[in-house]
Automatic annotation (TrEMBL):
It comes from Sediminibacillus dalangtanensis. The keyword Hydrolase applies. The keyword Mitochondrion does not apply. Transmembrane segments: none annotated. Residues 383-533 form the Glycoside hydrolase family 3 C-terminal domain. It catalyses: Hydrolysis of terminal non-reducing N-acetyl-D-hexosamine residues in N-acetyl-beta-D-hexosaminides. One of its GO terms (molecular function) is hydrolase activity. Keywords: Glycosidase, Hydrolase. SUPFAM superfamilies: (Trans)glycosidases, Beta-D-glucan exohydrolase, C-terminal domain. This is beta-N-acetylhexosaminidase.
Amino acid sequence: MKHMTLEEKIGQLFIIHMYGQTPTDPDYEQTNLNNNRGAKNFEEAIEKYHIGGVIYFNWTDNIGTPADLEQVNALSNGLQEIAMDQRMPIPLFISTDQEGGIVQRLTSPGTVFPGNMALGATRSADLAADSASIIGTELKSLGVNMNFAPVFDVNVNPANPVIGVRSFAENPDLVSELGVAQSQAYEAENVIPTAKHFPGHGDTDVDSHYGLPIINHDLETLQEVDLKPFQAGIDAGIDAIMTAHIVVPALDDSGLPATLSKPILTDLLREQMGFDGLIVTDSLGMSGANVLEPEEVPVEAFKAGNDILLNPPDVELAYNAMLEAVKSGEISEQRVDESVYRILKAKMEKGLFGDPFTDEDAIANIGTESNLAKADEIADKSITLVKNDENVLPLSQDQSVFITGPSAAEPEYLAEQLQSKGFDVTAYATNTSPTQAQITEASEQAAAADTVIATTYTANTNAAQQRLVEALMGTGKPVIASAIRNPYDLMAFPEVDGYLATYGNQDVSVEALARVISGEVNPQGKLPVTIPELYEYGHFLSY
């Protein structure tokens, strides 16, 4: 730090995204410039801004879907090579969002895990740790050394559009137990875990990507519910915590989101809760952060107590704004030194100064048979049988089955899985909000079958899906609903004959659902949330 210029120190505070598959990808130069990356490629960004890290996305083409493992591994090594070649050789944080479930950047041929709420349904800290251990190994094999996971949010709102199944449960003790188990497993693999989204994004009906949610919990509720898992993470020595773009009036009545709030980040998180690790903003490109002028957002986020400014929408503007704030005395160089020290210490403790590279042969550790088997085991143990009137489940081979629902709820893939087990199944996929014509078509096909399965996708907040299920019930045939994402869908049609919660539409979860429906696997998942006025937290049935 003694030898670093102010420009180099400011650069360390930023983790940015760039488009491209290589450090100097010529195909994305214009895209990077057009999208305010402040440079035409990764190499130029490292040289110009001395950035502390990068974040990989699928939409920036850093990681493809499916992933080209050699390409990602080479990209990471190439970036570290450039960083270590600078005047001050400082390794990069190479980060991504690999939560499992609906948020994972490395998909096939990597191991795709059911999400956190599926883990919550298993009630197993061991399985939570196993999944993080495998995710950590696979990320490390690609040169990724920082993961924006686990999610420590306690999901208590059935209408939550952004967290939902990304949360382990509505119970803060279970969230704490599984979150800490995952964090420690990541740390054991030398990947920095990041507990998110502080001070808790679980009770909102607004998505902070597109708006600014307000959490109206009183102090007591915040202590007993939202903050509890974060305190458990701090007590267990977690490396990093990510902020939420949410307003919490009980903690700060200024109307500013937590990301920009000194009372929340410095007074509460640092001083009262005793956290001395890295505080990372959620993406500064999200609507919830953009409540001030663009040049004020990074400066105010830093003044609030953040160490790392993640994903600024305009790299050059954010970098220059921070530089100007220090030069003008608005931010002291001592405050910058505090954050840079934390950043360099984290990089040193993870051994990155000694060797930031990953072996190109390490990709052999990705998507192995035993890793995939562990994902299947978690999925099998997560599927929750909530309702089974007249023992409509498991299905018997002598009945014809019709499956319908939005294509996001994978009715056709579920049908394929059941067909491969010898069942007589037809399927029909609709839009996420089925049209009247699609509802009529589905009802006609349902009338010709013995049993109907409706796969639903957050139907508790989708009136058209509710009309579809009502029309299916109107045929007089037994109807089994399977919620393929949030488990709350039953609130909209409690009269269905059977109900299963799957917690995600990944293939691994749909395949497990087929094994449960066919009777090959006896369901054992327990509800990680209450289905209001219907079923308690912890409810489950088995065959």
